[in-house]
Design brief:
The protein has 397 residues and is α/β, with parallel strands linked by helices. 45% of the residues lie in helices and 19% in strands. The strands form three sheets. It has a seven-stranded mixed β-sheet with strand order 7-6-8-9-10-13-14, sandwiched between helices. Strands 2-1-3-4-5 form a five-stranded parallel β-sheet. The longest helix has 21 residues.
Length: 397
């Protein structure tokens, strides 16, 4: 029976995709369905745009597939906003979306510094949102706002996994470079808390502005300290600059960071220097999800230029969660919020979604490594089999 259900779900994706290719349902006069708007907010420009565009595309795909269902009660329209991964811009666009009464709910934010800055806005305007990428725990756990939900995991999971994995690889000494936003401070906190019980030692910590360009001073000290690992608590643009300058200064340490650097943008920006970088992400590879292939087939058929990236599946799942809630109770913010609050056992692309008492989904972290120009699930990598060596291990052996 379980196999039959999985087959049925795959057929649903295929049939919906075929329907989209055959006819523009939104323009069909035969469908007298009301249109309901939902917002997507993420970084659509700037250094984190690879992840933001992948998230937007994935949410748009969910909307198109939902609109192709003949029994859907409503036609959905995705309204995208660019938060630029900047808190001040994020608050502006969150206010614009939340004050627009025609927008019933939102799929919101990849950047933690933006997400934490906007929670008060969503609460004040009563707009229910589902976070699709930001990992700062305080976004859900730092308040009791019923409007705030999150389908992805937090940096608590990622920091714990990072400390356990890196020490098991034989790394003992660490230097932390983190940005001075709430995101970077949180990464430093949760990694350091979990590292000490594992026997690792932090030799130095360098807080840096997220827009800092030159790391000569910090990396000169890193080179003198000779750590096994440089742990990055920052997003892709910062990670690219640090990794590239480590290479230029001849620092042989392993670079590791959590999901903030796990993007196509990091590999493209760092180039060959990205090889062997390790990252930790609250999500499994698409190949491990029951409907992963169906998602990728539909994504490819839609013709998006950008990869869905690491958090696209979460944006897709958040969009479906919201639309299914609206289908149940209609386009009413309070009613949709209440349905989202009680989410248990919801079958999504990223697995079963179960919200705890702070509307936080519990997700396990996984290990990835940059290999041959792409992020590879650690157990499937040449590094796991020993065919390739991590940069830090190669230097120390």
């Amino acid at each position: 029976m379980a196999t039959d259900r999985k087959t049925a779900r795959r057929k649903l994706f295929t049939l919906a995709g075929a329907a989209l290719a055959a006819v523009s349902l939104a323009a069909s006069p035969a469908l007298a369905r009301d249109t309901v708007k939902i917002a997507f907010i993420g970084p659509l420009t700037g250094g984190n745009s690879a992840t933001g565009l992948g998230g937007r595309n994935s949410a748009a795909l969910a909307v198109d597939l939902h609109n192709a269902k003949p029994d859907a009660k409503y036609t959905y329209e995705l309204v995208p906003f660019d938060d630029e991964c900047k808190p001040n811009v994020g608050v502006q666009v969150a206010t614009k979306a939340a004050s627009d009464k025609s927008i019933i709910a939102g799929i919101t934010h990849y950047c933690s510094a933006v997400a934490i800055a906007t929670v008060d806005t969503y609460n004040r305007f009563g707009l229910p949102v589902v976070v699709w990428g930001a990992v700062l725990p305080e976004i859900t756990y730092g308040n009791d706002y019923k409007e705030i939900h999150r389908v992805n995991g937090t940096m608590i999971n990622e920091g714990k996994m990072a400390a356990e994995f890196l020490t098991k690889q034989g790394f003992k000494t660490f230097v932390v470079i983190h940005d001075t936003t709430d995101y970077g401070k949180g990464q430093n906190k949760y990694f350091a808390e979990n590292l000490k019980p594992q026997g690792g030692e932090i030799l130095a910590t360098f807080p840096v502005p997220p827009d800092q360009q030159d790391f000569t001073a910090e990396l000169t000290k890193v080179k003198e300290l000779k750590p096994d690992v440089v742990f990055m608590g920052g997003l892709t643009p910062l990670g690219v600059r640090v990794r590239s300058q480590m290479d230029r200064l001849g620092i042989p340490a392993q670079l590791a960071g959590v999901s903030g650097i796990m993007s196509a943008g990091f590999i493209e920006g760092a180039g060959p220097a990205a090889e062997g970088t390790v990252s930790f992400h609250n999500g499994a590879p698409l190949t491990k999800y029951a409907d992963g292939k169906a998602f990728m087939d539909a994504y490819a058929k839609a013709g998006y230029r950008e990869d869905p990236d690491a958090y696209g599946p979460f944006a897709f799942s958040a969009a479906n969660l919201i639309m299914d809630a609206i289908e149940k109770v209609g386009p009413d913010r309070k009613k949709v919020r209440d349905v989202l609050n009680t989410t248990k056992g919801y079958k999504a692309l990223v697995g079963e979604i179960n919200f705890d008492d702070h509307r936080q989904n519990i997700v396990s972290a996984n290990v990835y490594v940059s290999q041959d120009g792409k992020w590879v699930y650690w157990p499937d990598s040449a590094y796991a089999t020993g065919t390739k060596k991590l940069p830090g291990k190669a230097a120390s052996n």
